[in-house]
Each structure stands twice: as structure tokens, then as C-alpha cells.
Write a structure and sequence with these properties.
single chain; 351 residues; alpha+beta; Beta Polymerase, domain 2; Methane Monooxygenase Hydroxylase, Chain G, domain 1; 2 domains; eight-stranded mixed sheet; 7 helices; cell membrane; Magnesium transport protein CorA; transport; transmembrane helix; cobalt ion binding
């Protein structure tokens, strides 16, 4: 799993409140689309491609989905109509925000990171949310399936989502995003299991690089999750003006899921570290085995070199040189030395 990092420093110097899209160039030509769903337990009304004004929006709960924040002109007009501060609009168009929440006079602004695993590459996409009155407004760069899952629940009246207030809709949205973290964790756990088996059988350098990428991804996931936890705990407070007391239990459940993911992330980080240590240990043992073999070979040749060097000295008189079978005697002595040394090494279990 490889972490994709891009557009981190794309934001240029500009005036506060200036709306500039900082995402991928491929999205810059994307035209904004707006879906406005007004609902209650009995009726649902769906409008598309219009800029609603908060004061003219149906008094029922509303989910407004703004897709295509690269269309900064439409984003600016929409923000002015619904009463969103220009600094919030600036943050919405800048996709390099961290997970956070900010309270304004009449609304709360939320930023969360949606993880997406595609072709073993881990990407994070910014989801901006504004909760203003009985209206939940969601801003994204491009189309995502999670928002359509929420829309389908509303249209088909699945569960209790239509009978609840808009803060429950916020919970449902955050819960779906948190579920994506579970999916990433399961994939990472399976990937680590495969690498663990490969390392045990045949450790290779590519496995170490994979472990490094996984650990980097886990660190980023943990960083986003800590901010996500702070966000969930903010909505857990009894005196929170944005959440009804009857819905606090859902945000507590969301916090519990976040803590569970956090624990699993720590476990996976420890597993990654353990597999890395096993890899290095196996590589070290393999290197030691190679050095042991080379040392044994070198040790065997020490006495052979001595014999060869002895009879290679340039003296005028060496009686053994005149023996008829002196050469074979020398070879026999060398072979005997090799056998004796091998027996000694075997007794000492050096190989």
C-alpha cells in the first residue's frame, strides 16, 4: 500500500478570503453540480443544479450536496447565498486542510479526510461539511459513492434517517467515512500477513520497501484519526447546541468506532515494526551464514597455504624435493589436514 502525496504546496500567496482551488488539474474544468434534498418522515423533495438560499429553503431538514469545488465562481455565489463566511469558502477550495471543525456565529464548519484505496495506492480526499440550522451542506472535489449511499437511504426511507433531525444525518455521513478506515485497516492487515509469510520464506529488499510504505500510510491514518476523534468528542458534549440530546448516543458510538480503529492502527504499526525486525534478523542471519562458510573455507586454506609456501621457498637444498613421491606425499598431507579440520568443525557443529 503506497501513500499518494501531492498538491501539498500548491497553494500560492494570496489575500485572505480569496477562493482558489488547489486540487488536481484534471478537476479544474469540472462544473459544479448541486443536489438539494428536503425531507421529513413523510415527504422528500429533490432539486438539482440550483443555488438555494437558506431563507428560501424548505423548512424541513435539508441535505445539500455541492460537487465540484474547482468551480470557484459557482462556489462563491453559492456561499454568498447560503451565508457561508468567505474564510470558510477559502478553506473549502483549499484541499490541503487538516481534519478539523470551526464554529461560526450561525454554523459549524467541518473538514474530514476520506481515505480511498485504489490500485494499492492510498489517497485522502477532503470532505467539507457545513451544518447550518436544519441544513447539512457537503462539498467535494468530485463524485463519491458515500454521498449517494446517504441519498439512497433518504429516497428509500431506509432505517430511521428520515425521522431524525439533521444532526443524525451528520452522524450517518461521518459513520460511513469512518467505515472506510475499517476497510483500509482490513486490507492492510491482509497485506501484512502476506508480507510476513514471504519474509519468513524468502526475505527480499522489496519487502522492506513495502513495510516502509505501509508504516508511512499508518502514520498518516493515525494523524487524521486523532483529529477525527477530537471532532467526534466535540459533538459528544451535553451542552452542544448542534446535537439533540437524543442523538448524543450516536456520536458516542462514532467515538467508540474511532477509538477502536485507533487501537487497531497501533497494533498494525507494532506488527509492521515486528515484521521489519524479523526481516533484518533473517537478513543478518543469512549474512552470518555466508560469512561462516567463507571463514571455514579460509581457515581450511591456512595450513594448505603454509605447506605450499614452505615448499615454495627458494633454498638450494630441500631433501623432500628429490623424493620420488614427494609431490604426492605433500598432496596427502594437505588432504589429511582438510579432513581433520572438517571433522573438528563438524564435532563443534560449526556447519
Amino acid at each position: 500500500m503506497k501513500l499518494s502525496v501531492k498538491n501539498i504546496l500548491k497553494k500560492s500567496k494570496k489575500l485572505p478570503g480569496e477562493i482558489t482551488y488547489t486540487g488536481d488539474e484534471e478537476n479544474e474544468e469540472r462544473k459544479a453540480s448541486i443536489i438539494n434534498i428536503a425531507y421529513d418522515n413523510e415527504k422528500l423533495k429533490k432539486d438539482m443544479n440550483s443555488i438555494p438560499e437558506i431563507k428560501n429553503i424548505d423548512k424541513r431538514n435539508n441535505l445539500i450536496y455541492f460537487q465540484g469545488i474547482s468551480d470557484t465562481e459557482t462556489l462563491k455565489n453559492f456561499g454568498n447565498h447560503v451565508g457561508i463566511h468567505k474564510l470558510t469558502l477559502e478553506d473549502i477550495s483549499n484541499i490541503n486542510q487538516r481534519t478539523k471543525f470551526e464554529t461560526y456565529e450561525n454554523y459549524v464548519y467541518i473538514v474530514v479526510k476520506l481515505p480511498e484505496l485504489k490500485e494499492n495506492n492510498l489517497n485522502f480526499y477532503q470532505i467539507s461539511i457545513v451544518l447550518i440550522g436544519n441544513n447539512l451542506i457537503v462539498f467535494t472535489e468530485k463524485e463519491f459513492s458515500f454521498i449517494h449511499e446517504i441519498i439512497e437511504r433518504l429516497e428509500k426511507n431506509k432505517g430511521i434517517i428520515r425521522s431524525k433531525s439533521v444532526d443524525y444525518l451528520l452522524y450517518s455521513l461521518l459513520d460511513i467515512i469512518i467505515d472506510e478506515y475499517f476497510i483500509i485497516l482490513n486490507h492492510t492487515a491482509e497485506e501484512l500477513e502476506d508480507i510476513d509469510e514471504e519474509v519468513t520464506i524468502n526475505p527480499e529488499q522489496s519487502q522492506l520497501l513495502d513495510l516502509k510504505e505501509i508504516k508511512q500510510s499508518l502514520i498518516i491514518l493515525k494523524k487524521n484519526l486523532i483529529s477525527f476523534r477530537d471532532l467526534a468528542m466535540f459533538f459528544n458534549k451535553e451542552d452542544n447546541e448542534y446535537v439533540l440530546k437524543e442523538n448524543l448516543i450516536y456520536f458516542r458510538d462514532l467515538t467508540d468506532h474511532i477509538l477502536q480503529i485507533s487501537d487497531n492502527l497501533d497494533l498494525l504499526k507494532d506488527t509492521t515494526t515486528n515484521i521489519t525486525e524479523i526481516y533484518l534478523s533473517l537478513i543478518g542471519n543469512k549474512t552470518n551464514e555466508i560469512m561462516k562458510v567463507l571463514t571455514i573455507i579460509s581457515t581450511i586454506f591456512i595450513p594448505l597455504s603454509f605447506v605450499a609456501g614452505l615448499y615454495g621457498m627458494n633454498f638450494s637444498y630441500m631433501p623432500e624435493l628429490n623424493w620420488d613421491f614427494g609431490y604426492f606425499y605433500a598432496l596427502g598431507i594437505m588432504a589429511t589436514m582438510v579432513v581433520i579440520m572438517l571433522i573438528i568443525f563438524k564435532i563443534k557443529k560449526w556447519f
